[in-house]
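RECORD TYPE: inverse folding
INPUT: structure tokens
STRUCTURE:
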């Protein structure tokens, strides 16, 4: 991270990626298609959550462009921090958690 967050000075957690779940019987699975989940936790409009626990999210942010930026949104702290210009840039910036001190 170029900018610190309430989580850490130099990184944010990314240990799982929400999937696309079409089968409603699999209610335990986190799906990026479940907009009620995002609304329930108070995410701003035009966000696609990639991961998060309800208190914080890493999202694709479509508020300003057709190509979404990747953002860190901490609901509890009312914090929004830019992570990357695109999902591709986000993926290219990932490192193993073993490298985090």
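DESIGNED SEQUENCE:
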């Amino acid at each position: 991270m170029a900018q610190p967050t309430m989580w850490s000075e130099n990184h944010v957690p990314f240990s799982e990626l929400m999937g696309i779940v079409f089968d409603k019987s699999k209610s335990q699975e986190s799906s990026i298609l479940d907009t009620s989940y995002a609304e329930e936790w108070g995410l701003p409009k035009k966000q696609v959550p990639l991961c998060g626990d309800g208190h914080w999210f890493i999202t694709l942010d479509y508020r300003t462009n057709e190509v979404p930026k990747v953002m860190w949104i901490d609901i509890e702290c009312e914090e929004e921090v830019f992570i990357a210009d695109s999902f591709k840039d986000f993926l290219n910036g990932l490192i193993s958690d073993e490298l985090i001190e």
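NOTES: The first strand starts at residue 47 and ends at 52.
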